[in-house]
Design brief:
Blueprint lengths: L4 H7 L47 H58 L16 H32 L36 E3 L2 E7 L2 H12 L2 H7 L5 H12 L5 E8 L2 E10 L16 E7 L9 H16 L5 E4 L6 H9 L3 E7 L4 E8 L7
Parallel strand pairs: 5-6
Antiparallel strand pairs: 1-2, 2-3, 3-4, 4-5, 6-8, 7-8
Helix pairs in contact: 4-6, 7-8
């Protein structure tokens, strides 16, 4: 702080000799501390001298404070704008997510009416009326393609038996020879005791029923589910509908040892299932299979239906349903990917026990088993 006028004057006062100063002509003796230009008045407290201490802040310091305040306000505006932009982005993402949920719900609701028209046994579902000639020809072409693939598989399996031995198990599509078996409503499900006739079952989460898949009706919905990244990572059927279509047709063109179904909960399709004869599947080469072992594959379609125990409740209900409807079946089998920890956890919660790790051609799997003898204990 620069010195005041008073202190500057005091610091430059002329040095005088010690002792009293001589009186001037007026008889007034000057103060010993008085400097040049002094009036000769005393600066002691209680006198009439004026205090000249300047308490004002320097202009440079005031300017610095003003600049810092302006910078702080500017930074605050930047933060406020960033918060506004972030909130706007979050709002857009929420809107996009809500729109996706609306689209998915609309897609599901479009299918629901057809399932509500199914008979009590659940064997047949309502089909869209008035199909065009183009649709009929397309369906016939798909049936012919599936039959051709099945026939090729049968010949390949015959040649394979010659090289591997007569006891080698046939491939899934090797026994299909009847055109009528390619029509979903005429499928004979004796290998699985007619899954379509298993009927609805009461579960803790509502009334559940299997509806065997119709490619024409159900392909868009199943393909939509398969394109969920969380699903595609393990099913490997993302992308074009052709991949899902070929996967479903390979089962429908078979001999009934694997039945693709939609799981309908309280009248709404919400899951995709494959019920199959594990003892007749290539899986049987990788574990000690028993006659009539029944296998399960499950996909929960909607994201909102995952992670809240719905899958576990349905797995337990379906496993018990298979044991009830198939008296010859002593075990229900599943082989989820070991990396799919939510799926493994769902099977454990559904009363399955972990049996072993098995190495399959496309994955390392957890062999999960629900035993008839332990169903009341697990």
């Amino acid at each position: 702080m620069p010195p005041t006028d008073a202190s500057a004057d005091a610091g430059t006062a002329a040095v005088t000799e010690c002792g009293p100063a001589p009186a001037d002509q007026s008889g007034t003796r000057p103060s010993p501390d008085a400097g040049e230009g002094s009036t000769g008045t005393s600066d002691l407290p209680g006198t009439d001298a004026e205090d000249t201490l300047d308490l004002r802040l320097p202009d440079e310091f005031i300017a610095l404070l003003a600049k810092e305040r302006a910078d702080a306000e500017k930074q605050t505006d930047v933060y406020r704008q960033a918060d506004a932009d972030e909130q706007a982005d979050a709002g857009e993402q929420v809107d996009a997510g809500e729109q996706a949920d609306v689209d998915e719900q609309a897609n599901v609701e479009k299918h629901t009416d057809a399932y509500e028209q199914a008979d009590a046994g659940g064997r047949t579902c309502a089909h869209a009326a008035g199909r065009t000639d183009a649709q009929v020809h397309t369906h016939a072409g798909r049936r012919a393609d599936a039959l051709e693939r099945a026939e090729a598989g049968r010949h390949a399996d015959t040649e394979g038996k010659r090289s591997r031995g007569a006891d080698a198990p046939p491939s899934v599509s090797s026994t299909q020879t009847d055109h009528d078996l390619l029509d979903h409503d005429l499928l004979d499900h004796d290998l699985l005791d007619r899954v379509a006739d298993w009927g609805p079952t009461v579960t803790p989460v509502g009334l559940f029923q299997f509806v065997p898949v119709s490619v024409e009706r159900d392909l868009p919905l199943i393909s939509h589910w398969m394109n969920d990244p969380a699903v595609a990572a393990f099913w490997g059927l993302g992308g074009s509908q052709n991949a899902t279509e070929d996967h479903v047709w390979a089962q429908l063109a078979g001999d009934g040892r694997s039945i693709p179904c939609l799981g309908v909960l309280e009248g709404t399709p919400m899951s995709y299932w494959e019920i199959y004869r594990a003892d007749l599947d290539p899986l049987a080469r990788h574990y000690p299979a028993r006659p009539h072992d029944t296998g399960i594959h499950l996909l929960i379609g909607g994201v909102a239906d995952r992670g809240r125990g719905l899958g576990s409740a349905l797995l337990r209900a379906v496993a018990d349903l298979a044991l009830d409807k198939r008296p010859a079946c002593a075990r229900v089998i599943a082989e989820p990917d070991l990396r799919n920890t939510p799926s493994v956890a769902a099977f454990l919660s559904a009363g399955f026990r972990f049996s072993a790790e098995i190495e399959l051609p496309a994955k390392r799997a957890a062999l999960m088993v629900r035993d008839r003898s332990l169903r009341d204990l697990l």
